[in-house]
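Lab notes, practical 5.
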Amino acid sequence: MIQGFKVMTFHHTPNPEAAQFIMSGDVIKKGTKTFSSPEKAKGDPLAEALFKIYGVENVFIKENFATITKSPVVAWTTLMEPVQNVLEQHMTVYETCDEDAQPVPETPDILEKVHVEDFPKLTDAQKSEVIDAMLDHAIRPALANDGGGITLLGVEGNLVRVHYQGACGTCPSSTTGTLEFIEKFLKDTLSKDLKVETVDASTV
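Output from the prediction step:
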């Protein structure tokens, strides 16, 4: 049976083009769902309906909220009601998430097993596991509060490649302040030689 959801509240995010719609319950069992274009939305009733609203450019779903990113040419006063109506008509519980397609080795205690001084000697795959765990612990909860998220695409030597999700995707601060904070955090906790680079959503 499809659970009926209501939009409980609407939050602006640090990104003026993205807003968070808080639902009346959890809408995804785990992880996140991102729809970055009408093509990517095909087959998903909620996403398809949202992209039919003029101005909707990205849909990001996590926990109990949906973050909608819009075009700068459309005002939130225009989008608020139709987006809320679609969310309440089509939102259901997602049993699977985007992360299911990117299996991660079961290493819940990776942060306890790896000593900082050993980090530079790890393989790129092992570095990825450690950094992803660090993002889980210290970065993703804060980004989720602002309606966004971050995906680790990979590590090559000292280069860490990430992709922002939801409100973070087009937020001006994501390529400056937020990126600098994440890079400084990883430098301070793992290795001073690490460099963080963002990858544009259109290439992912």
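Observations recorded by the TA: The CA atoms of residues 41 and 48 lie 5 Å apart. The first helix runs from residue 38 to 41.
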